[in-house]
């Protein structure tokens, strides 16, 4: 059974149907495919651009952390080489903290972990089980992972050994505030 409306009528109706099926339907299919393809390509371009931005932000953070810990190692070198009084050590720590604004806290301890100087009011010595402190007292530089502190700021805790005449005589422990690099990342 053939549909009656398809075959009834004159040549005009048949030409109109032919035009509809030969031109309009393929154009509609092509349009739908073009819209879908364009959406897929646009999403891929956006994903690729966001990936590139994230990689650049990660590189900026890595450069910031590396530079800050190189400066921390230089401060530790000065503490180990110079014959400074405790007051001079305190002044050096405070001056370093003021110059390198990215450090939220700096703590200088002797080889037993006893507090020698700090930018914060710390009445007790650091926990000897602290991985940053134990690594530095073992003669290794330690840079921890990014974590969130109590004020919801991203920080990295690390430590460098303070060497006196080639021997580890203490450690300089720091908390690097990553909010300082926000403008660069943003």
Radius of gyration: 33 Å
Distance between the termini: 69 Å
| Largest beta sheet: strand ordering | 2-1-5-4-3
* Main sheet: strands, sense, barrel: 5 strands, antiparallel
Give the structural class: alpha+beta
Unreliable segments of 5+ consecutive residues = none
Query: How much helix, percentage-wise, in residues?
Result: 40-55%
| Order of SSEs | HHHEEHEEEH
Q: How many extended strands?
A: 5
Task: Name the overall outline.
Answer: rod-shaped
Number of helices: 5
Mean pLDDT: 82
Strand content: 15-25%
Q: Could you write a compact summary of the structure shown?
A:
The chain is α+β, with helices and mostly antiparallel strands and 186 residues long.
Task: Explain what you see.
The structure is a single chain. Helix content is 54%, strand content 22%. It has helices at 4-7, 11-81, 86-99, 131-137, 182-185; strands spanning 103-110, 115-118, 142-148, 154-164, 167-177. The protein contains five helices and five strands; from the N terminus they run αααββαβββα. By secondary structure, the protein is of the alpha+beta class. A hairpin with a 4-residue loop joins strand 1 and strand 2. The longest helix is centred in the first third of the chain and has 71 residues, at 11-81. The protein has a five-stranded antiparallel beta sheet with strand order 2-1-5-4-3. The model has no long low-confidence stretch (mean pLDDT 82).
What tags apply to this protein structure?
single chain, 186 residues, alpha+beta, 5-stranded antiparallel β-sheet, 5 helices
């Amino acid at each position: 059974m053939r549909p009656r409306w398809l075959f009834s009528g004159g040549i005009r109706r048949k030409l109109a149907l032919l035009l509809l099926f030969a031109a309009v339907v393929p154009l509609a299919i092509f349009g739908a495919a073009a819209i879908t393809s364009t959406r897929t390509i646009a999403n891929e371009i956006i994903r690729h651009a966001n990936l590139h931005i994230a990689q650049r932000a990660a590189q900026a953070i890595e450069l910031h952390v590396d530079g800050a810990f190189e400066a921390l190692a230089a401060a530790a070198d000065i503490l180990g080489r110079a014959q400074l009084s405790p007051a001079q050590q305190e002044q050096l720590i405070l001056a370093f903290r003021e110059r390198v604004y990215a450090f939220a806290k700096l703590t200088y301890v002797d080889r037993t972990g006893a507090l020698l100087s700090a930018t914060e009011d710390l009445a007790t010595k650091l926990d000897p089980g602290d991985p940053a402190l134990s690594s530095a007292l073992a003669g290794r530089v330690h840079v921890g992972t990014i974590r969130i502190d109590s004020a919801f700021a991203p920080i990295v805790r690390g430590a460098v050994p303070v060497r006196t005449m080639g021997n580890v005589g203490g450690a300089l422990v720091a908390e690097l505030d990553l909010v300082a690099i926000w403008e660069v990342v943003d």
